[in-house]
Amino acid sequence: MKASYGLVAGAFLLAVVGSSYAQHSYIGAEKCKMCHKVQYDSWLTTRHAKATETAKASTKWKFDASCLSCHATNKDEALSGVQCEACHGPGS
């Protein structure tokens, strides 16, 4: 009987711990700004905030997926540039 309770408790614990490691998605710097306004405003003044804009302005620029890991948070245009989540991971 005690073994059954132990199994149930263990399964519950695994479910709770496992859910905290669920897949998260990228939400973008605009959402981070809600709680981290000072950091967001500081980030806006950096080249990170304009990382893809610089590339697009160049006539020699060509899309290369290998650049995305550093120059974009995600392939989504709304998440272009080196945003918070590029280093800190998905925010949701």
Features:
92 residues, mainly alpha, Multihaem_cyt_sf, Cytochrome c-552/4 domain-containing protein, signal, Cyt_c-552/4
Poorly predicted runs: none
How many strands in all? 0
Task: Profile the largest sheet.
Answer: none
Number of helices: 6
Protein name: Cytochrome c-552/4 domain-containing protein
Keywords: Signal
Pfam families: Cytochrome_C554
InterPro entries: Cyt_c-552/4 (IPR023155), Multihaem_cyt_sf (IPR036280)
Outline:
The chain is mainly alpha-helical and 92 residues long. It has a domain at 26-88. 50% of the residues lie in helices and 0% in strands.
List the helices and strands and how they pair.
Elements: H1 2-19, H2 29-32, H3 37-44, H4 51-57, H5 68-71, H6 84-88
Give an overview in words.
The chain has a domain at 26-88. Helices cover 50% and strands 0% of the residues. It has six helices and no strands. The chain has helices at residues 2-19, 29-32, 37-44, 51-57, 68-71, 84-88. The longest helix is centred in the first third of the chain and has 18 residues, at 2-19. The mean pLDDT is 71.
